[in-house]
Amino acid sequence: MTRKKVLKLRRECFGGTIFDITSGRRAYVDRTEFERIKCHRGLDAHLMAELGMNGSIDVTTPAWIPDFNFSAPDTVFFEVTRACNLRCSHCLNASGVRSMDELTQKQRLSMIDDLAETGVQEIRFTGGEPMILDGLGELLARATALNLRTSMGTNAVLATEKNVHRFARFLHMAIVSIDGMEDRHDSIRGRGAFRRTMAGMENFLSYSIKVRVNTVIMRSGIHDTVALAEHLYNRGIPLFVRRLVPSGRATDMLSEVLNKEEYEQVCVQLKPYLADPRGLTQGHYLNERALETRIRLPFRRSSCSAGHRGMVTLPNGNMQTCGFLGSLGEPSVGKVPDESLATIWKRLLVSNHIASLEDNLAIHNQYSTGPSTNCLAIALSSRICTPP
Fold this sequence. Notes:
Mean pLDDT: 95
Radius of gyration: 20 Å
Helix content: 25-40%
Low-confidence stretches: none
Largest sheet: 10 strands, mixed
Structural class: alpha/beta
Number of strands: 14
Order of helices and strands: EEEHHEEHEHEHEHHEHEHHEEEHEHHH
Strand content: 15-25%
């Protein structure tokens, strides 16, 4: 399926963030490069070759540009509903039933307009299960019309050929949740879920929608994680192995969290796939590498995106810095569309909200049996959850 090639260019204190909405690739340019790209409405041959990007330029200049962070979140994770067709045992926000105070469709559309104006470059539609929402196609279409990259976190059970056909031209990527091979997956998500999810994934692929599989690794399912990695690797489908965060319905699953030695063993078992230069298999604590940016940034680019490069909108419009943090009791930092994201972003950045959450990291890493982490949710969960 042919898609319009658009590069989003957002002004920053150091120059700009440039983002390819088709590939999902992001790079940083200095002030001189920003002005040149903006002036010519495109990349010159040198930058095209270096960045591997090409397309029409869509420029955003936020009203407030801080000198200690990015001028807007790169990605907003939009939990469009808490309704879900499954009841997964480790669901991060205990989804299942639609909340009574969810935004109206008009409010959702208004929020998408605001995100684009603020400088957001991608919206990840999540839930609950976003495909339950009748108006999902309209939301995807609005985001696409505003030159935003659209992605969706889904269990793919509802991704029938008919449903995928309805919005295929508005969706860039599907992030499909699979928790192991059939028996393991179904024990977590319900009988028959694996086969329906695999069929849904094939429907996405048949419409040229990129797919990545997310799997949550647990102590009782290490073997299945390795088996799933092999299965997807042989299909050429990317896999991201996520750590288990004890939030939502997983609050009482601390015994399933891997320790440092177990992650090291998983690394050994996954070595053939982790070493592949295509990067098909990745994961927390498995093959993470320090990010090297093409230009020097005047502030630290944290590997934890919460309140730094990402935000989450709950179904009622409340904004959190991270979906896991919200489920762990993080206070809302604002509410859309009652106020603009730009207002919320500025208020968040000038507050000590993130700094207070970062205070948990040193204590967690000092006493944890797991790998050293920069994840604010992991650190907060270790402070508020009592081991069994």
